[in-house]
Design brief:
The structure holds three protein chains of three kinds.
Chain A: E1 2-12, E2 18-29, E3 34-38, H1 45-52, E4 60-65, E5 68-69, H2 75-85, E6 86-89, H3 101-105, H4 116-129, H5 145-157, E7 163-167, H6 175-190, E8 194-199, E9 212-217, E10 220-221
Parallel strand pairs in A: 3-8, 3-9, 6-7, 7-8
Antiparallel strand pairs in A: 1-2, 1-4, 4-5, 9-10
Chain B: H1 5-34, H2 42-82, H3 89-95, H4 99-124, H5 132-159, H6 169-172, H7 189-209, H8 212-239, H9 258-275, H10 282-310
Chain C: H1 7-19, H2 21-58, E1 62-68, E2 71-73, E3 75-76, H3 79-84, E4 89-95, E5 97-102, E6 107-114, E7 128-131, H4 133-141, E8 147-151, E9 157-165, H5 171-174, E10 177-181, H6 182-189, E11 195-196, E12 198-203, H7 209-219, E13 223-227, H8 228-266, H9 270-281, H10 286-318, H11 324-329, H12 346-372
Parallel strand pairs in C: 6-10, 7-9
Antiparallel strand pairs in C: 1-2, 1-12, 1-13, 3-11, 4-12, 5-6, 7-10, 8-9
Helix pairs in contact in C: 1-10, 2-8, 2-10, 2-12, 8-12, 10-12
Classes of the chains: A alpha/beta, B mainly alpha, C alpha+beta.
The complex binds adenosine-5'-diphosphate and magnesium ion.
């Protein structure tokens, strides 16, 4: 269960300029549901995602995930929370381009100092799942956009998080690849993951497996 | 004054320590003044970040301080070649007024640093960071001790006079001198040795009862009893000389550096024994007992082997 | 029991170093040079100190020299007998020796006289010479191969035959030495039969040297008594001092180095900033990132340390330290021509370690901390 209570978020750009990104947001997302956050660019979608992932803190209000007040966590506990609960697929994928596919995917596992066998097992599983087995040792910068995106999902998925967040996942994909991504999401829904997608891509509107569509405009819910 | 490469190295690192711990000291004061984990002010976030800088620096210094301590002893041994009359580090320490206090302070500081790190660890494992103010208050105290230690060290190196004749450890640790340790010579050996073994028995008892405060207390006493009985009794079996009471000579090659092992085991044992005050976990009890027992076995073996080989003890008990 | 080293993190750290090749190569070169210089200097000093100690060990326990108003004069041979009467003394032997200036080559030779009772040197008793290797080379250049002419104080020449050369255990002291009979030496330095340069005393029990020395001093208040230990200490001081001067220079370089590292480690490209953001987003804590940075620091500084030490080894013991060794030996041209004995000096390696690795790591602490505590919020944009 994810809850946002009376959230306001103001970015202090510099001493004199503030941007009010979110105003009085109240929201709750049930476990295992798929939610699409839609709205124009600049409406505050990414900001909401960053609050849920404990990457940022609200200016006021509370974010509660599974009855943990994540908006109050210190930096370290926020990291630990992400490590345990959240997988993120970023808008620009945020892969490290000079590392190989394998090296990128295993990043979330590294802090726990994993055993080599166990790591290989997990890795093999996601490589197969997202159909990039043959790309394992290839540098990410030599991959196509669609392949890069699948690496990004594999990385988000590898540590088996409860919640998967995707920010504008299809912004850089053509329609065929976008539909393929949607099919991947459908598969994840079957595994009872909570999925939150921020997008303004009409392909996501009215999908059968989506539980809720939330529209936001200029920082508040419509 | 002695300005050998070894001494300069120690001084350079001392300078580095002063520089970095002073940063931590300033952070400690700030945290002591305005730490409030519930606050959402930017200043609190800054403090949270700075507390990491502080703990990183302290960790760094601790990690260097341990080998540096051994290096310090080595350096003293080396200086003992230059000072007429001194045969090992003990004579060198005694060549200045502050030497003996310096070495005690060094040992205390190593314990305190290690203690701080354990405290820090338990603090960070709890989302509410209950010990943050405490640990930085503690650090302010450690800081003062550390600065004092460095002051003494610099003072010591600058006050050596090479021409001056110093006493060697033989005369230092004997009943005729009037140092603190010579008071020990009026205590019966059998009493010291019994105290040592009885103390160990208490360790075992509190180990089984898992009473952390008494276990820690017994460990504190164990440090004192071990060092005293080592100087007065067990040490003489390492040297195989009834009159040689020196806590430094067995750090040298002639005795296969056994001193480093003994002091190392004693430190590991008693330090982990103190940790249980904060972390009442079986792991620390076990490590503590393991090393303390190791220490006890090794010193006892020296006596046992001597007895088997020679059929008599060095001196009547 | 959890593994101590996180190999995946280590692998990441290595990768991260490789990704910033030019910067890290630059740092490695500077740090290697620094450790190289320091190690080389210490290697040379400890080798020379070893040589000197060997020489000193061969020296007599006590030397008694006559002084008048603090100035050195020849001593009465008869004083040797008075000294012998002190208990605990094995022998007291008058020596004649001195430095002879050879103008042609501009160098000093040490001339040492051998007595009638020293069987080893029978061959040179008449009009012969035994010379050190360094002396041989110098004389060859002036075409003296079979004999040498000494100029006496009245201007006449004394021709002595070169009977051979000697190998000594330590090269430093004997390189410039010429052995001859005491009589010939007396002629060269114009010392009469009742005088000697100094008296050497050997003591039965080494522990009594100090007591014996003070007894002699009491007996002859206007002599100067030098014990072996005095010499040892003064040698040690000279070298510690010279090593110290170098260390002082090293401190300055170290400080510069510290600033460079600090600066280099602080300068982050936007790509690196993004990387840290990614790491935090996938669950790295501040400590994890600090640890990664620490791995980087340890790898690069240990690597540079090892390179520096190996370079110094090669430079000193294989190439015999061109240029640098002159600074430490150069009393006279002659004495520099010896090979450095190989001494594996652990203490030096420890000192250099303490002066390189921790200093490097300390310079990266603050920059690493800055990186590790950066806000991760930006990665969402
Ligand atoms: N780190 C930031 N600093 C300043 N302004 C920001 C920051 N992040 C987002 N904003 C601003 O907040 C508003 C909401 O942005 P965002 O949440 O990224 O919208 P969306 O994802 O819907 O495009 C925008 O006006 C954006 O410029
Ligand atoms: Mg966005």
């Amino acid at each position: 269960m994810i809850e946002l209570k009376d959230i306001n978020k103001i970015y202090q750009v510099n001493k004199y300029n503030k941007v009010v990104a979110l105003k009085g947001i109240n929201l709750s997302i049930k476990e295992g549901s798929v939610v699409v956050l839609k709205g124009a660019s600049g409406s505050g979608k990414s900001t909401i995602l960053s609050l849920i992932a404990a990457l940022g803190k609200p200016t006021s209000g509370e974010v509660v995930v599974d009855s943990v007040h994540i908006s109050k966590l210190t930096d370290n506990f926020a990291s630990a929370f992400r490590s345990k609960n959240i997988g993120i697929v970023f808008q620009k994928y945020n892969l490290i381009s000079s590392l190989s596919v394998k090296e990128n995917i295993i990043l979330p596992l590294i802090p726990s100092n994993p055993d080599a066998l166990e790591l290989e097992k997990k890795l093999q599983k996601v490589l197969e799942m997202f159909e990039i087995v043959d790309k394992k040792e290839i540098l990410v910068k030599n991959l196509s956009g669609g392949q890069q995106q699948r690496v990004a999902i594999a990385r988000a998925y590898i540590d088996n998080p409860k919640i998967i967040i995707a920010d504008e996942p299809t912004a850089n994909l053509d329609e065929k690849l976008s539909l393929r991504f949607i099919e991947i999401l459908r598969g994840l829904k079957q595994e009872n993951k909570t999925i939150i997608v921020a997008t303004h891509d009409p392909l996501f509107f009215g999908l059968d497996f989506v539980d809720e569509e939330i529209e936001i405009k200029d920082g508040h819910l419509v | 004054m002695i300005l050998s490469p070894e001494v300069l190295t120690l001084l350079i690192l001392d300078f580095l320590f002063v520089l970095f711990t002073s940063i931590v000291f300033v952070i400690s004061l700030q945290i002591w003044k305005s730490w409030d984990l519930n606050s959402t002010l930017a200043s609190q976030y800054t403090l949270e970040k700075r507390s990491f800088l502080a703990s990183t620096i302290i960790k760094f210094i601790f990690v260097i301080k341990i080998p540096l301590f051994l290096f310090f002893i080595f350096t003293l041994d080396k200086i003992s070649n230059v000072l007429t009359g001194a045969m090992c580090g003990a004579g060198v320490l005694d060549a200045t007024d502050v030497g003996n206090y310096l070495i005690m302070l060094k040992v205390i500081n190593i314990y305190l640093f290690a203690f701080w790190l354990v405290l820090n660890n338990s603090d960070l494992q709890n989302p509410t960071q209950p010990y943050t103010k405490l640990k930085f208050a503690l650090f302010s105290f450690i800081y003062i001790l550390l600065i004092f230690e460095i002051y003494l060290e610099v003072d010591m190196f600058f006050s050596f006079e090479i021409e001056k004749l110093v006493s060697c450890c033989g005369s230092l640790y004997s009943s005729s001198s009037d140092s603190l340790i010579s008071a020990l010579f009026h205590v019966d050996n059998s009493l010291l040795v019994s105290l040592f073994y009885v103390n160990y028995l208490f360790l075992v008892i509190f180990y089984f009862f898992k009473n952390n405060y008494f276990f820690a207390l017994s460990n504190t006493l164990f440090v004192i009893n071990s060092v005293f009985s080592l100087i007065m009794f067990f040490g003489t079996y390492i040297y195989e000389l009834p009159s040689h009471h020196c806590p430094f000579c067995f750090l040298q090659t002639d005795y296969y550096f056994v001193g480093y092992f003994l002091y190392g085991a004693l430190f590991m044992g008693t330090f982990n024994g103190l940790v249980v005050i904060f972390k009442n976990e079986l792991k620390y009890y076990k490590i503590s007992m393991l090393f303390n027992s190791l220490y006890l076995v090794v010193v006892s073996l020296y006596v046992g082997v001597y007895y088997i080989r020679n059929g008599v003890l060095l001196s009547p008990m | 029991m959890k593994k101590m080293i996180n190999f995946y993190l280590l692998e990441y750290a290595i990768g991260s170093l490789v990704r910033q090749k030019s910067k890290n190569i630059f740092i490695t070169i500077i740090l290697s040079l620094l450790t190289f210089l320091l190690t080389a200097v210490f290697f040379i000093t400890s080798s020379i100190r070893y040589e000197l100690n060997q020489t000193v060990d061969a020296l007599p326990e006590i030397i008694v020299a006559q002084t008048k108003g603090g100035k050195h004069y020849d001593i009465d041979v008869s004083k040797a007998d008075s000294i012998l009467s002190i208990t605990g003394i094995n022998s007291a032997i008058p020596r004649v020796w001195g430095y002879y200036y050879f103008k042609n080559a501009g160098v000093n030779f040490s001339l040492v006289g051998v007595g009638e009772f020293e069987d080893d040197y029978k061959e040179i008793l008449e009009n012969g010479l035994l010379i050190g290797r360094g002396v041989r080379d110098v004389l060859k250049k002036s075409y003296f191969k079979e004999y040498f002419n000494f100029i006496l104080s009245d201007g006449s020449l004394l021709k002595l035959d070169i009977k051979g050369e000697f190998d000594a255990d330590t090269e430093l002291e004997s390189n410039d030495m010429i052995l001859m009979s005491k009589d010939n030496l007396r002629k060269i330095f114009d010392i009469d039969e009742t005088k000697a340069t100094d008296i050497v005393v050997s003591v039965a029990n080494p522990d009594e040297v100090q007591t014996v020395a003070s007894k002699i001093q009491l007996l002859f208040p206007n002599t100067r008594i030098i014990t072996k230990n005095d010499l040892k200490i003064s040698y040690q001081n000279i070298f510690d001092y010279k090593g110290g001067v170098f260390l002082a220079l090293f401190i300055i370089s170290l400080f510069t180095f510290f600033i460079i590292i600090y600066d280099k480690a602080s300068g982050l490209t936007s790509e690196q900033t993004r990387e840290i953001g990614i790491l935090k987003a996938v669950g790295f804590t501040i400590e994890d990132i600090l640890k990664e940075k620490f791995y980087e620091g340890i790898i690069i500084s240990l690597f540079a340390y090892i390179i520096g030490v190996i370079l110094a080894f090669t430079f000193v013991y294989i190439f015999n330290a061109p240029l640098l060794q002159n600074i430490f030996t150069g009393y006279s041209e002659l004495k520099t021509s010896f090979t450095l004995p190989f001494i594996l000096d652990i203490q030096t390696l420890v000192i250099v370690f303490f002066l390189s690795v921790p200093i490097y790591i300390s310079a990266t602490i603050i920059p690493s901390w800055r990186v590790a505590t950066m806000d991760a919020e930006e990665v969402m944009r």
